[in-house]
Amino acid sequence: TPGSLDEFASKEILRAYGITTPAEAVATSLEEAVRVAEAIGYPVALKTAAGELHKSDRGGVRLDLPDAVSLAEAYRDFSTRFGPRVLVQQMIPAGVELLLGLVNDPQFGPMLALGTGGVFVEILRDHRLLLLPTTPAAVRETLLDLRSAPLLKGARGRPAADIEAIVDTAMRLAALAADLGDLIAEVDINPLMALPGGAVAVDALIVPKRDT
What we know:
CATH superfamily of the largest domain: ATP-grasp fold, B domain
CATH architecture of the largest domain: 2-Layer Sandwich
CATH topology of the largest domain: D-amino Acid Aminotransferase, Chain A, domain 1
Shape: globular
Mean pLDDT: 93
CATH class of the largest domain: Alpha Beta
Largest sheet: 6 strands, antiparallel
Oligomer: single chain
Distance between the termini: 18 Å
Order of helices and strands: HEHEHEHEEEHEHHHEEE
Strand content: 25-35%
Radius of gyration: 17 Å
């Protein structure tokens, strides 16, 4: 999205509100990228930090890199195509992918968006909007009303997701909205990975309001 903060800067703001993200750091050289990866522990994800368009639409993300050799190969590819700035990120195990966000409605102000996330966002269009301020009970009820709710409860032999961690993350985002709602046009956490223990904002984007 033009004018948005990059992924790392967006997540720095989320981290300030106690929202869990993967361990990650920006690197601008191969040596630095390897150093970060060794500190985090393999496997890692590598993402170009040259802008959101490159990241999603032009193959600027590589997942599950198992060692320094594969990291170096990916880094050289990215630096040639996109430039030297990358984000090295801890791999988060697969869970239930949710969408959590804020939208700023001209009439109602900041609203919390909650829905099924990951690659199915556009296909399923399964999301709900909550007026702010809200309560943990209202978030929980909305969450369990989603089409993906059976997955959260542990359908098909999967472990159940940590519902309270998802609710806690949503309430932290609501606190951010209360503080920064006048400055922010949109927050998009997709996916919020719901795990058996915890919920992790794997990717995020914050769009500041433009001066009008």
